[in-house]
């Protein structure tokens, strides 16, 4: 009996030690599974800068001369007109140009009451401002500008009609006059707008319009100036309009270089 109790006691002691060892191993396993290493934060990559080199733009400066094709060809289909106009401009700065026009006109105007011929020369001078931003080596122009004009001319009264307030017997025939008035002058201001496009090497084609205000006008005795060379038709007032269609040639004299700063771009950092 004593041996049996000793056996049970030894078995119980071994069972207890085995159970304790199993619990301790289980706790270590659970603790090892629960506790995990914290992830290391990713280091943000610095922004990458893309640096470009400065570009150099070469601008040409010189004299541009040409002719107004409208006035030159108008005489082919209008028997009452003869004229020619030479145009020119010189580049002063990147945007500003000195501009001038010199011309001759001979125009016969047939009005309701009189027929007259204006013959004379004129000159206009002022400046143009180029509003167009050219790319690389382009040289196109979209300009606005101001001019002052002066003309010296003569008026010949070819024929006239006497005004009859009661034309019961009909209109009277025109009376031939042939009287000429020399030494007439006129001055005006004009706002000009136009464009010039480079079509070939140094060759430009352009179109322009002008709004004019007559500030001085010496009139012949007995009638008004219906047409003033350089100013065009007066339209019984002080305002006038005009336009031209030109072809011109550019004579380069010197060059200037302009440095265009490079644009620095940045890549956004990755998260």
Provide a quick synopsis of the model.
This protein is mostly beta strands.
Looking at this protein, list some descriptive labels.
271 residues; two-stranded antiparallel ribbon; 12 strands; mainly beta
Description:
This protein has 271 residues and is mostly beta strands. The protein contains two helices and twelve strands; from the N terminus they run H-E-E-H-E-E-E-E-E-E-E-E-E-E. The protein has an eight-stranded antiparallel beta barrel with strand order 2-3-4-5-6-7-8-11. Strands 1-12 form a two-stranded antiparallel ribbon. 19% of the residues are buried.
Task: Reconstruct the topology from this structure.
Blueprint: H1 2-34, E1 48-50, E2 55-68, H2 69-74, E3 81-91, E4 96-110, E5 114-130, E6 141-160, E7 175-200, E8 203-217, E9 227-228, E10 232-233, E11 239-260, E12 265-267
Antiparallel strand pairs: 1-12, 2-3, 2-11, 3-4, 4-5, 5-6, 6-7, 7-8, 8-11, 9-10
Task: Give me the oligomer status.
Answer: single chain
Rg, please? Answer: 47 Å
Low-confidence stretches at least 5 residues in length (pLDDT < 50)?
A: 1-9, 11-15, 18-35
Taking the sheet with the most strands, its summary is: 8 strands, antiparallel, barrel
Distance between the termini: 78 Å
Fraction of helical residues: 10-25%
Calculate the mean pLDDT score and round it.
81
| Tally of individual helices | 2
Strands side by side in the biggest sheet? 2-3-4-5-6-7-8-11
Secondary-structure element string: HEEHEEEEEEEEEE
User: What percentage of amino acids are in beta strands?
Assistant: over 45%
């Amino acid at each position: 009996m004593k041996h049996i109790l000793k056996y049970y006691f030894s078995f119980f002691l071994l069972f207890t030690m085995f159970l304790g060892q199993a619990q301790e191993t289980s706790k270590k396993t659970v603790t090892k599974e629960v506790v995990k290493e914290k992830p290391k934060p990713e280091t943000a990559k610095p922004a990458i800068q893309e640096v470009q080199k400065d570009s150099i733009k070469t601008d040409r400066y010189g004299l541009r001369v040409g002719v107004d094709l409208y006035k030159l060809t108008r005489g082919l289909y209008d028997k009452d007109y003869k004229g020619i106009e030479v145009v020119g401009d010189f580049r002063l700065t990147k945007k500003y140009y000195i501009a001038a026009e010199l011309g001759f006109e001979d125009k016969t105007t047939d009005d309701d009451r009189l027929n007259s011929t204006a013959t004379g020369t004129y000159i206009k001078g002022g400046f143009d401002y180029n509003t167009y931003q050219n790319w690389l080596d382009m040289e196109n122009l979209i300009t606005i500008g101001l001019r002052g004009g002066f003309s010296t001319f003569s008026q010949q009264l070819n024929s006239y009609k006497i005004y009859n307030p009661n034309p019961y017997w009909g209109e009277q025939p025109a009376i031939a006059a042939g009287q000429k008035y020399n030494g007439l002058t006129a001055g005006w201001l004009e706002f000009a707008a136009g464009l010039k496009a480079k079509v070939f090497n140094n060759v430009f084609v352009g179109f322009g319009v002008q709004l004019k205000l007559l500030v001085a006008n010496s009139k012949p005795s007995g009638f008004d100036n219906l047409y003033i060379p350089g100013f065009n038709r007066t339209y019984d007032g002080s305002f006038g309009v005009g336009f031209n269609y030109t072809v011109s040639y550019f004579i380069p004299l010197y060059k200037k270089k302009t440095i265009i700063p490079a644009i620095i771009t940045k890549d956004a950092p990755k998260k």
